[in-house]
């Protein structure tokens, strides 16, 4: 079977901050990592390949430096890695990103038919969780989002446990299909030494906008209907209000709870049939 | 139609709220959005409509009017009984193409974040994810969509200038719940579902409902977290009762895990889970940096600690200085009283 994994190199967001003077992102010196959800997507693809036989192909869109993430990914045992890199891709929103990845996946599909495309649930930088469903729609594949377990797979279908608000859902889709992956899906492996050595010298294939039949109106800034008009730091954490409950605990707590409801921090919802989700 | 540009004589008008109804349950965010949609529609000067796609939804239509919809678009069909992307995306996309709303909103729930990107892709328009603030630019009348990104480290305001509709998913429990007014009604527009069961490639085999406590930590909307201030495992029922009063999920610090009082899957922080609930209530937690990195992007932090110098107070919106053994039972009682006739958030 042929598994394709969409893998994004992302900044380690725990270290990204806003420069308070310029209100721009401070990315300098922030380490790049494989998007954590994509690492689990890759792990699942490799496990299924080892069980079913076949091949794992990785596709990533990003700057040339993203090669590093692809080498790292190869060290876990993938078979092929392709980096889509072109200045014309820069500034793409999730609609354009899904378009760019889809055109590449269609070419891969034409060469070697794909059974499952895996993406992460979301990327930890943009956080939209929109790219996976966008690719599924464009490919015309059914999608199973928020996957936490692949229960069954055969040549024609896949059954996945999905995480939803109210509980877990077991859903079955005909192949080819697209699955977005939660971290609970599996435990990551460590790379073996021979795989690490092979990966260190691996050269990912580089595809640019000219290597594929791209419509330039659908990619980059031009192809992106959304635009970021302003960024700013989240509401400050300092200067919170202190409530002294040492002398009159009862009054202090009543006062706090009153505020919490008044400011809609906690809201009352009418109890719904079927219980709370 | 490949894309949906503004220009070209098409009239895109109205604010639409997609009501989420699945497994017999209406997601409360649907009504929060009718409340928010009312404000947006008033600023623009347009109609507020609800969209209901599902099976046997007459009671949902009544509720939509009660929560403020002026008009309700309905597709009632057995293929829509359980949520599946294909028929839902088909249904919503069909309605949008036919009636051309200017803005459509849906909850940023597992379902909203599944089907809305599918709809936006079909319509070739923009979609802003997981918004926490919405507004209308007074001059351009564009929808200003504000959302956290980079794990909550930054906020971004996003515009969709030249394609329609403007689409956002909105985080649950951020917008206020509007008043429910019994007996309101309005126009009902019924349409047909164009997809038949044999065209749909996914089947829902089983649904395993979970209770509030088994919600995964990183999805929990309210968390009650406990630290070593609780002093002993035998005192844990104190915080469990507080959590129960709010339907909250219980979490803890590494200190508590190392003491053997709770399991590691409850641990928040650098070597545990990162959480981003609407409300994080920290009980007897000092606020070590390794703990803070896992929870400081929570929307609201309430801390209870008897040490005025505790680091947790630096990130808390409300810091209660006091003895947790006095304060926590009072909190539990007060929340229980307020939530007598409903559930929190
Ligand atoms: C502050 C900010 C806010 C933004 N808000 C929005 C918004 O609301 N709407 C919008 O449309 N765009 C938005 N964007 C743009 C968006 O981040 C980019 O389009 C990005 O390329 C894709 O979205 P994502 O990072 O959210 O990925 P997600 O959609 O969250 O990623 C899901 C999965 O798709 C795959 N994937 C995503 N990108 C790639 C890639 N480059 N290569 C390979 N696989 C990939 C991965 O498997 C990933 O796990 C925003 C950007 C910024 C900086
Ligand atoms: C590499 C590394 C990784 C780590 N990862 C994590 C992590 O993922 N998560 C994590 O939580 N920690 C982590 N830690 C540990 C962290 O540094 C702290 O030791 C830990 O968070 C402290 O737990 P605590 O707040 O429960 O305990 P303490 O620091 O002992 O705090 C107890 C608090 O309770 C208050 N208190 C006591 N009695 C009362 C009372 N009667 N009423 C009110 N308040 C009272 C005290 O004033 C004090 O502030 C990590 C540490 C390292 C070195």
Automatic annotation (TrEMBL), chain A:
<dbReference type="InterPro" id="IPR014729">
    <property type="entry name" value="Rossmann-like_a/b/a_fold"/>
</dbReference>
<dbReference type="InterPro" id="IPR033948">
    <property type="entry name" value="ETF_beta_N"/>
</dbReference>
<dbReference type="InterPro" id="IPR014730">
    <property type="entry name" value="ETF_a/b_N"/>
</dbReference>
<feature type="region of interest" description="Disordered">
    <location>
        <begin position="225"/>
        <end position="247"/>
    </location>
</feature>
<dbReference type="InterPro" id="IPR012255">
    <property type="entry name" value="ETF_b"/>
</dbReference>
<dbReference type="GO" id="GO:0009055">
    <property type="term" value="F:electron transfer activity"/>
</dbReference>
<protein>
    <recommendedName>
        <fullName>Electron transfer flavoprotein small subunit</fullName>
    </recommendedName>
</protein>
<dbReference type="Pfam" id="PF01012">
    <property type="entry name" value="ETF"/>
</dbReference>
<feature type="domain" description="Electron transfer flavoprotein alpha/beta-subunit N-terminal">
    <location>
        <begin position="22"/>
        <end position="216"/>
    </location>
</feature>
